[in-house]
């Protein structure tokens, strides 16, 4: 095989992987976490189940890849050079967007709940890293925008884990009782409390 | 059977139920969510598995009863006549206490994650009710203590769902990375932000 052929095969495999992830997202959107079986995803993307297992050896690893892809696609829209307040407002839009994709939020919540049950769970390392990165990134964004203290009084490294906790915790309440819980309004109230919204509207 | 015999049997069944719940808590503390099988709990309490199934027809229903019992026992220590600020500080102590009972927190997080996956999950109705009650109770406590606005600026019914979201979200981060996340300190920072701690130290 020539180098060009190898490059072509790698690109083809990458394309196929992306097609599987898009198909999995569609299946999740339509049928939720439980309905997103490997069989359903394989059928959607026109693969046999062994063919799908070649790319993703288990349902858990496929779902981890779906959640990674969502993070990648969601943040791709955010210019890295923009100011921190803009990125916090983007986060508010993201909460609103999540309210329109219930199956994906359900999948996230169910998988993170499974992952805490043991160090051998295939998603645990992904989530540990994801939260560790998220705390570091939010701390950095908040420090760049507000310096040592946010207007509400917290330091950036106090605010970051709370910001993430509020996002996760509101999703649980909203999934269980969408009529009673308005995720976007509740998250905006939390940003008001941090004092980041006053800053943004200056 | 006489009325006295029937009463005696009901009391005996109630005692047996409580003994099963205590045994289940011990097993959860030692072995975590996954280790808390019906077989392990039956063995601990000296019942056959069919004997245990007579009281709790499934692992999910046993775990729901364990979480209900925890809520009951945790709040039994709080005099209902005490002021709201005292109850918020009790909540801070409860977060600290939870940091010493990892298996139970893991069980809560795993079961709530499962419960959002479908209306037919045996724990979904329990959690929906639990969150609905918790939002109402916290709103009432905060309104009694602070009136229409908390010192930090939120209304009681804005603060209540956020308070619960922070509790749940911090548990997730702490379960995944106990070295990196100090639940008690983070929760105290959130109470500072709400402004309830200033009030309490007056």
TrEMBL record, chains A, B:
This is TetR family transcriptional regulator. Keywords: DNA-binding, Repressor, Transcription, Transcription regulation. The keyword Amino-acid biosynthesis does not apply. Residues 37-56 bind DNA. The keyword Transferase does not apply. Pfam families: TetR_C_6, TetR_N. PANTHER family: HTH-TYPE TRANSCRIPTIONAL REPRESSOR NEMR, TRANSCRIPTIONAL REGULATORY PROTEIN. Residues 14-74 form the HTH tetR-type domain. It comes from the Bacteria. PROSITE patterns: HTH_TETR_2. It comes from Nocardia aurea.
């Amino acid at each position: 095989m020539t180098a060009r052929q190898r490059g072509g095969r790698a690109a083809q495999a990458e394309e196929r992987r992306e097609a599987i992830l898009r198909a999995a997202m569609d299946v999740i959107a339509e049928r939720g976490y439980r309905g997103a079986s490997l069989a359903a995803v394989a059928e959607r993307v026109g693969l046999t189940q062994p063919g799908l297992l070649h790319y993703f050896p288990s349902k858990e690893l496929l779902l981890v890849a779906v959640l990674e892809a969502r993070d990648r696609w969601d943040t791709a829209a955010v210019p890295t050079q923009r100011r921190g307040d803009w990125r916090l407002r983007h986060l508010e839009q993201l909460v609103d967007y999540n309210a329109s994709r219930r199956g994906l939020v359900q999948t996230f919540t169910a998988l993170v709940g499974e992952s805490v049950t043991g160090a051998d769970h295939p998603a645990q390392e992904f989530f540990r890293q994801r939260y560790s990165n998220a705390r570091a990134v939010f701390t950095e964004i908040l420090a760049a925008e507000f310096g040592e203290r946010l207007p509400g009084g917290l330091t950036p490294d106090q605010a970051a884990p709370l910001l993430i906790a509020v996002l996760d915790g509101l999703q649980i309440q909203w999934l269980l009782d969408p009529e009673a819980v308005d995720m976007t309004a509740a998250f905006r109230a939390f940003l008001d409390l941090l004092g980041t919204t006053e800053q943004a509207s200056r």
